[in-house]
């Protein structure tokens, strides 16, 4: 939870443990699920549903690992990055290293595995370091601070793509940046009764947790929209009226300029106006809603030079709406912090959502590189290999698909070409009663939504997606 900068001179060698499986290997493993002959399909599915991929912690990387697991858990991240990849020029991975490395993790973390598997977060670290031409410090950092950096970088890569593709008129209609929402501050002056509105964008909705034993997220969000009385607001209208009524000769020139409607307002008007404060009512309201709503429960308490962690229990729902808005959101991931303000550990709980991920026909996304059928089927999931180059082409989807037909829905089995390598199990799948993963770096276990919701005093980052 430290405020130190993420990027800077880091020290110490990091033992890398990178797995960079090819797409072919993945197809081989997917095929192997249906090729097993000595076990019932239900048993295979149960195995498949009982394991997922964790991330190596080669230092103090739990904050990176948790952010990766949470972002990759969101179907809308997959939908956005898939479209992004289609619309990206051939040098997409070089132009958008963070987007493409995040796509790599979306793919790898949802790869069907039947036993423990671990990969390295290094491709994302490398992408960030390449982008900012700086080495990330290997010390402990704040998962919220990194999340903000990641989302800002994704947004920069999105803007770069839209600027590069101005000739593509369909681009804006096809591709929305899913992580940005808008808040509007509404201010009514108690003196002049002027009503002003000011919009501000957010990538993460930061909510201050109160110093009390427990509260609910719904109450915290509602409090954000309650009218707030401020008695020292510098209302421009009041200040202009004050100057216009003044008989002080030093305002003569400004008065003439303001009185002449044909003249533009001085660029430094605010500086020229004498200080004056008015009482106002300020109300904040939610305006445009992001497709992915990241909520930060701010738990820092500052008393003088001392910073502490606020362990207030915050009850958070599996589904929510923002106050005054209709859209429904569903919780897909939660990052929990345990420890003190200065040090501690991050863990991510994420929804399994296997119904969604299993329907994706990854072969159609990567058809240019698919050589399935030439690869020997293997039952063994891939274990981390020795250090390999991270300069391998990062796996953005194949570009030949028509961009206008893209949707955030996965390509389903029914839409697969007849040559698709996947086969759906013939019998209904047995579902585990535990529909969430609890992930602490490379340690993964199944858990329930109720158990996730019980982690109220450590809940730190919540990831909701519009239903
Ligand atoms: Zn006023």
UniProtKB/TrEMBL annotation:
Query: Per the database entry, which stretches of residues form a coiled coil?
Result: none
Among Gene3D superfamilies, the record links this protein to:
Cysteine proteinases (3.90.70.10)
Q: Which reaction does it catalyse?
A: Thiol-dependent hydrolysis of ester, thioester, amide, peptide and isopeptide bonds formed by the C-terminal Gly of ubiquitin (a 76-residue protein attached to proteins as an intracellular targeting signal)
User: Which InterPro entries does UniProt cross-reference here?
Assistant: Papain-like_cys_pep_sf (IPR038765), Peptidase_C19 (IPR050164), Peptidase_C19_UCH (IPR001394), USP (IPR028889), USP_CS (IPR018200)
MF terms per GO, please? cysteine-type deubiquitinase activity
Top EC category = hydrolase
- The record's region (Disordered) falls at 370-437
One GO BP annotation of this record: proteolysis
Which keywords fit this entry according to its UniProt record? Answer: Hydrolase, Protease, Thiol protease, Ubl conjugation pathway
Does the record's keyword annotation contain Protease?
yes
What protein name does the entry list? Ubiquitin carboxyl-terminal hydrolase
């Amino acid at each position: 939870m430290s405020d130190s900068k993420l990027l800077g001179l880091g020290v110490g060698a990091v033992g890398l443990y990178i797995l960079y499986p090819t797409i072919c290997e993945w197809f081989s493993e997917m095929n192997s699920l249906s090729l097993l002959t000595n076990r019932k399909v239900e048993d295979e599915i149960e195995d498949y549903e009982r394991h997922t991929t964790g991330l190596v912690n080669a230092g103090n990387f739990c904050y990176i690992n948790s952010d990766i697991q949470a972002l990759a858990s969101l179907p809308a991240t997959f939908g956005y990055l898939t479209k992004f990849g289609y619309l990206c020029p051939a040098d997409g991975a070089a132009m958008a290293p963070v987007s493409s490395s995040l796509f790599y993790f979306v793919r790898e973390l949802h790869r069907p595995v039947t036993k423990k598997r671990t990969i390295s977060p290094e491709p994302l670290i490398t992408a960030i370091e390449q982008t900012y031409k700086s080495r990330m410090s290997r010390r402990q950092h704040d998962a919220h601070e990194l999340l903000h950096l990641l989302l800002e970088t994704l947004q920069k890569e999105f803007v770069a793509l839209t600027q590069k593709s101005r000739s593509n008129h369909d681009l804006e209609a096809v591709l929305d940046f899913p992580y940005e929402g808008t808040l509007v501050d509404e201010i009514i002056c108690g003196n002049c009764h002027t009503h002003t509105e000011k919009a501000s964008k957010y990538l993460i909705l930061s909510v201050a947790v109160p110093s009390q034993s427990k509260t609910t997220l719904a109450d915290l969000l509602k409090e954000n929209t309650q009218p707030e009385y401020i008695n020292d607001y510098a209302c421009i209208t009041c200040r202009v009226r004050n100057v216009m009524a003044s008989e002080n000769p030093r305002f003569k020139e400004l008065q003439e300029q303001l009185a002449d409607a044909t003249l533009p307002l001085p660029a430094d008007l605010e500086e020229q106006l004498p200080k004056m404060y008015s009482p106002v009512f300020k109300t904040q309201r939610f305006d445009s809603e992001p497709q992915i709503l990241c909520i930060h429960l701010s738990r820092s308490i500052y008393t003088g030079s001392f910073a502490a962690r606020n362990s207030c229990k915050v009850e958070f729902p599996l589904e929510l709406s923002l106050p005054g808005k209709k859209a429904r959101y569903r919780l897909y991931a939660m990052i929990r912090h345990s420890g003190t303000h200065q040090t501690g550990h991050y863990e991510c709980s994420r929804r399994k959502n296997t119904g969604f991920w299993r329907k994706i026909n990854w072969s159609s996304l990567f058809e240019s590189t698919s050589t399935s059928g030439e690869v020997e089927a293997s039952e063994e999931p891939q274990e981390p290999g020795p250090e390999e180059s991270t300069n391998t082409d990062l796996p953005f989807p194949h570009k030949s698909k028509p961009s206008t037909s893209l949707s955030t829905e996965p390509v389903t089995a029914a839409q697969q070409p007849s040559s698709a390598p996947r086969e759906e199990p013939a019998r209904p799948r047995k579902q585990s009663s535990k529909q969430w993963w609890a992930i602490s770096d490379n340690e993964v276990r199944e858990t329930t939504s109720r158990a996730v919701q019980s982690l109220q005093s450590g809940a730190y980052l919540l990831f909701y997606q519009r239903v």
